[in-house]
Amino acid sequence: MKISTDKIKRVVIKVGTSTLTHSSGYINIRKVEKLVSCLADIHNSGKEIILVSSGAVSCGLAKTGFRRDTLTTEQKQAAAAVGQCQLIDMYARRFSDFGATIAQILLTRSVIDNKELRDHASTTIELLLGQGIIPIVNENDTISNEQIKIGSNDTLAATVSALCNADLCINVSDVDGLYDSDPRQNPDAKFIEYVPVVSDDIYSFGKGAGTARGTGGMTAKLESAKYTTERGIPMIIVNGADPEILYDVFDGDFVGTYFGVK
Ligand code: GLU
To answer: Structural domains in the chain?
Structure first.
């Protein structure tokens, strides 16, 4: 996919649990190190980056000893409280190796739905970006139960993109992008690299669950793409198997799906 990146200054980059962790639930250190060096470099090139990172529940599970097969929502919330510390500590250390400073922002649906709280969040993000700091956003899982959850971090990334008037939202996933059917089940599935409008037909392509460690799935990604593109913000899905794919995006030539007007 070829795009022009000249006018892209502010970017929300969402990275999912399946990209950040091994199937054991522990952090994939090699991947995270590559991701952080890429992001720090892109930041050095003059882009403003807001990272939306999952991984708190998964990191916490590996530490708390809760059983994955009988996990309750409350146990996930408790696991996230442990895992979020580990996640942010890891990012703070790795980014500081490159001289970059990070900040932690935790949001919930109740913040997004309340104008005053939303304004506080956007002012904080704006001030941080103005100081060259990289905000790292996650859902506040301690208070987000099923009722007030934003949804998946795909939805959170779309909401944050609108909140901070991003020029682009990049969803770094464990799939290459959108196919017309599930490529894990249909070897003839056709890859779709450009979607100007997220129509009902496009939705029908996206059926299927997320991975074992993530919660998003393609439907959540398509809903996010619809949300951002309706607000004039393009969204891209790329495969984070090699985080250096982000360089390809900023070079304007990458393998992935682009949603929105080019
Ligand atoms: N907030 C969750 C976590 O950090 C992620 C939720 C999601 O990716 O859907 O584990």
So the answer is: 10-259 (3.40.1160.10)
